[in-house]
Amino acid sequence: MPWLSKLTSLSFLVMLVSCSGDHNLWDCWSGFKRIKCDKPTAEQIAQNHLNNRDFSAAIEVLTPAIADDPENYSRYPLLAAAYAGRGGIDILGIARKQFGSSDSALTSFSAFLPTPNTVDAETYQQDLSDVASAVATLRAVPSNILTDSEAFSYSASAILQLTIYQSSYSIMFLNQFIISPTSGTITVDQLANMTPEQAEQVLTNLLAVGDLPQVSGNSNMQSAVSTIVTTINEQPGATTKDKIAAYVATQNK
To answer: Which of 48, 71, 121, 161 is deepest in the core (most CB within 10 A)?
Structure first.
């Protein structure tokens, strides 16, 4: 049932950002010495850090663990969640959002992301880099593993994660050129800082969302981002940057 698949994917995302381990493991961390516990695994330690929103600590645990055992793919969604969390995106907010045709996908996504007016320029670039790392981490999982639920039990959830992170990165990359850092409004004036190459990168990033496999729960996000691409391409203009400028003007109306 589609709703069950979506619930399972969302439940795994909840686990990624709010898991505190099982009772025995918690008892170990809580200092109940009378309880015999095995040494916590890298995943368990990382999940505890995620629960405490100590994303850098989770990254420090998982990065060498993956390097030591790169085919243990259950660690990749955890590392991606840590990068995305440190990058400031509201993972569950986006996962729960019902993207509809009446919404502006750009503003809908931006409500769950850092924007140039909410953090300083240096922090924004670091956030953007962290979200890019979240994308790269999940894309490092072989596609045949990522899409095979029998081989990789987290596949549906991992693809949902990847859709969220790729969408978030795409919107954040675009927002740095269209959102005023002082007023927080979308403005064409900001596009003076965009090069033609960066304009092409905007479309490449957005198109990458639609190229991901579809699973229950991510199709609305993919459709919302695809609408941005379609709307940009429908705008008048000789160059991609011109079309983006025309699109931005429509967002101000």
So the answer is: 161
Residue with tokens 């203009």: 237
- Delimit the domains of the chain by residue range: 2-251
pLDDT digit of tens for each residue in the chain (253 aa)? 444 444 445 555 655 554 434 434 444 444 544 545 568 889 999 999 999 999 999 999 999 999 999 999 989 999 999 999 999 999 888 888 877 654 577 888 889 999 999 999 999 999 999 999 999 999 999 988 888 777 677 777 888 899 999 999 999 999 999 999 999 988 898 899 899 999 999 999 999 999 998 776 678 888 889 989 999 999 999 999 999 999 999 886 6
Contacts of 48 (CB under 8 A, 6+ apart): 19, 20, 21, 29, 40
d(CA 232, CA 147) in angstroms, rounded, equals 30
Phi-psi domain of 217 (left: phi exceeds 0; alpha: psi -120 through 50; beta: other): left
pTM, two decimal places? 0.84
- Beta carbons of 206 and 193 less than 8 angstroms apart: no
Token pair belonging to 200: 């092409």
User: How far apart are the C-alpha atoms of 176 and 116, rounded to whole Å?
Assistant: 6
196 class by beta-carbon count within 10 Å (0-12 exposed, 13-18 middle, 19+ buried): exposed
Backbone φ and ψ for 186, nearest 5 degrees, come out as: -75, 125
